[in-house]
Amino acid sequence: MKFGDQSYRVAVILPCFNEEAAIGDVVRDFRAALPEAVVYVYDNNSKDGTVPRARAAGAVVRSETRQGKGQVVRRMFADVEADIYVLADGDGTYDAAGAPAMIEQLVAGHLDMVVGCRLTQFEGEAFRRGHRLGNDLLTGCLALFFGRTFTDILSGYRVFSRRYVKSFPALSAGFETETELSVHALELRMPIAEVTTAYKARPAGSASKLHTYRDGFRILMMILNLFKEERPLAFFSIIAGMLALISLVLVYPVFVTYIETGLVPRFPTAILSTGLIILASLSLTCGFVLDTVTHGRREMKRLAYLAIPPPGS
Predict the structure, then answer these.
(1) 132: buried, middle or exposed (CB in 10 Å: 19+, 13-18, 0-12)?
(2) How would you classify the pairing of strands 2-3 and 192-196?
(3) What is the DSSP letter of 47?
């Protein structure tokens, strides 16, 4: 597919689980928007007619038996070879017509990821109750821990460069994969952008696979785990500070009594406070050691990322 003066292999990758009501139209829409792209549908143990409908619409259908969107994304990124990747859901909620503009922005700006932000152009029933609030809260948590963030970290509509895809570790199993995608770009300081995209309600007969509270909790745990993995010094410093504060609160009356009388009447409290300070020191030490390890690991990921030229180069 030609963008600017160069031609690129474009792959549209669609993870699917029981999406027979929408997948045919989704494949046809992306084939119309990107006529020279190859549309891949990765079926994740669907029990309905997803597979035959995707094939009938002209998609290349493959399967991933391990359940979970993160599992499918890992398989797609490993198997599919292309220069530019368009990731979307198979539920018909994303606007395929916006894909060419997202790709053009990726190529023209030599970017590694363009995210379709859904939060300003969406149909009335597109977001289920509480999902907009949950998205805002999780986006705020990511900004708090990593300092810089996206407007819509949970968007499943993204365009990637090859060097992004082939350097992405893909460790998550479920819907938390979007959070991992965002943090990977932030931690390697990749050039990225967001564009506003339309977000539609699911078609009749299609049901969301997202469990609001369970998956929201898993996404929050993923943010905390990534904070620990990518910012270990900050993570363990917070733990050390909390332990030290508790220790000081406990030891203060014991210290005052000792100054006034020369006695330590609450000896168990003094021992507990000493133990908490030791734990705080160990936590801080772990933070320094793991920060050095993380720095080396980030350098290796950066080198693997830089080994592949950017689109438009």
Answers:
(1) middle
(2) unpaired
(3) S
Q: What is the torsion angle, in degrees rounded to the nearest 10, for the CA atoms of residue 298, residue 301, residue 302 and residue 307?
A: 160
Q: What is the 3-state secondary structure (H, E, C) of 134-192?
A: HHHHHHHHHHHHHCCCCCCCCCCCEEEEHHHHCCCCCCCCCCCHHHHHHHHHHHCCCCE
210 has pLDDT over 70 = no
75-112 per-residue burial string, b: 16 or more CB within 10 A, e: under 16: bbbeebebbbbbbbbbbbbbbbebbbebbeebbeeebb
Strand partners, 63: 43
What is the value of pTM for the model shown?
A: 0.83
Residue 21 and residue 204 in contact, taking contact as beta carbons nearer than 8 Å: yes
Residue 41 backbone zone (phi > 0: left; psi -120 to 50: alpha; other: beta): beta
CATH topology for 2-229 is: Spore Coat Polysaccharide Biosynthesis Protein SpsA; Chain A (3.90.550)
Question: With contact defined as beta carbons under 8 Å apart, do 54 and 23 qualify?
Answer: yes
> What order do you get walking across the sheet with 10-16 strand by strand?
60-63, 38-43, 10-16, 84-87, 158-161, 113-117, 192-196
Q: What is the pLDDT of residues 240-291, one digit of tens each?
A: 999 999 999 999 888 888 788 877 788 888 899 999 999 999 999 999 999 9
Q: pLDDT at position 125, please?
A: 54
Closest listed residue to residue 125, CA positions, set 34, 208, 5, 241: 208
pLDDT band at 216 (very low <50, low <70, confident <90, very high): confident
Contact between 276 and 243 (Cβ < 8 Å): yes
Question: In angstroms, rounded to a whole number, what is the distance separating the alpha carbons of residues 228 and 235?
Answer: 6
